[in-house]
Amino acid sequence: MVRLLVILPLLCSVFLHVSCAENPSIVSFHQGFDPLYGELNIIPYEGNNSVQISMDERTSSGFHSKLMYVHGYFETSLKLPGNYTAGVVVAFYTSNEHKYPFYRDEIDFEFLGHIHGQRWLLQTNFYGNGSTNRGREERYDLWFDPSEDFHRYGILWTGNRITYYVDDVPIRHVKRVDAMGGDFPAKEMSLFGTIWNGSNWATAGGQYKLDLNYGPFIAKYSSFVLKGCPFYLSPKAARCSDNLGLVGLENSDDITGEETGRMHAFRRKLMTYSYCYDRKRYVVPLPECVFNSEEFEHLKKFDPWTFGSGK
Ligand SMILES: *[C@@H]1O[C@H](CO)[C@@H](O)[C@H](O)[C@H]1NC(C)=O
Ligand SMILES: *[C@@H]1O[C@H](CO)[C@@H](O)[C@H](O)[C@H]1NC(C)=O
Ligand SMILES: *[C@@H]1O[C@H](CO)[C@@H](O)[C@H](O)[C@H]1NC(C)=O
Ligand SMILES: *[C@@H]1O[C@H](CO)[C@@H](O)[C@H](O)[C@H]1NC(C)=O
């Protein structure tokens, strides 16, 4: 990530048609985003730097970036609603479903609701070119209560990698392999923040439902980082991703050894689901999956039914 942040400003000056922000800086809600739905429940605050979105008996709500981007680093600080939030999904993700309804790409952070006293579950997932019948979900417990304070959630997306960060911990790192074909997100995407009713699946597989008596459910988003290559409808801008490749962004596809250590420490302790080890679902693991015996042992202990022999 450090390397990407160094490289992007260089790219912006070398390739003038790629209009990047000058600095890896924080943009206000007002600069970067527009309301998407449920405008009644979208309230910018701190001079438009931050925004709270909520769900109550009137509506759920969400916002989206003004621009679409090809590759980049996208981050927000997020504070979740507390108390009983079963069925309440809070998401921060990139998608282009509005533009490519049948061939969409998507990279997600989704919080799946929680019941007071229990932890929130965080889910990550991605789709490429409409690969929605091949979910690549992972779920994790967190080492903090995300409703108590703001924490940073970041998505780093290049032509060859997707890395998900929570604060400074890379919790998931996907390297593109050729066998993935179009399943690796490649087209321009917008960034979204949404809160909605996921009662039928989110919390304990839909066992616990949304209860509006505990509302309004308020999610606060702040400190947005939008460091990507904006996509414009011109032939020049369409070459953005090629240029990123030419200048060497594709060489920064690995996280550092130190980051790898923190990622493995996180995953072998707090991961609760990974499609890579779910042989009931994928008899042959999807091509980007890298087997890690410590992760596998941890998952088997956590959920023997899904990851063990079913006993
Ligand atoms: C926040 O954004 C709104 C909508 O564009 C604008 O009317 C308002 O002046 C902004 N407030 C501040 C403090 O910048
Ligand atoms: C995406 O899917 C469409 C329709 O199947 C196909 O024409 C296109 O080549 C695919 N793109 C990639 C990158 O796989
Ligand atoms: C939430 O979603 C569930 C399942 O789709 C639905 O049964 C329920 O009526 C919804 N609740 C509200 C308040 O919209
Ligand atoms: C949780 O919500 C219930 C119902 O609204 C309320 O009575 C209780 O005080 C809340 N607890 C906390 C810790 O906010």
TrEMBL record:
Catalyzes xyloglucan endohydrolysis (XEH) and/or endotransglycosylation (XET). Cleaves and religates xyloglucan polymers, an essential constituent of the primary cell wall, and thereby participates in cell wall construction of growing tissues. One of its GO terms (biological process) is cell wall organization. Its EC number is 2.4.1.207. The active site is at E106 (nucleophile), E110 (proton donor). This is Xyloglucan endotransglucosylase/hydrolase. Residues 1-21 form the signal peptide. It comes from Handroanthus impetiginosus. It is found in: Secreted, Cell wall; Secreted, Extracellular space, Apoplast. The keyword Secreted applies. GO terms for molecular function: hydrolase activity, hydrolyzing O-glycosyl compounds; xyloglucan:xyloglucosyl transferase activity. One of its GO terms (cellular component) is apoplast.
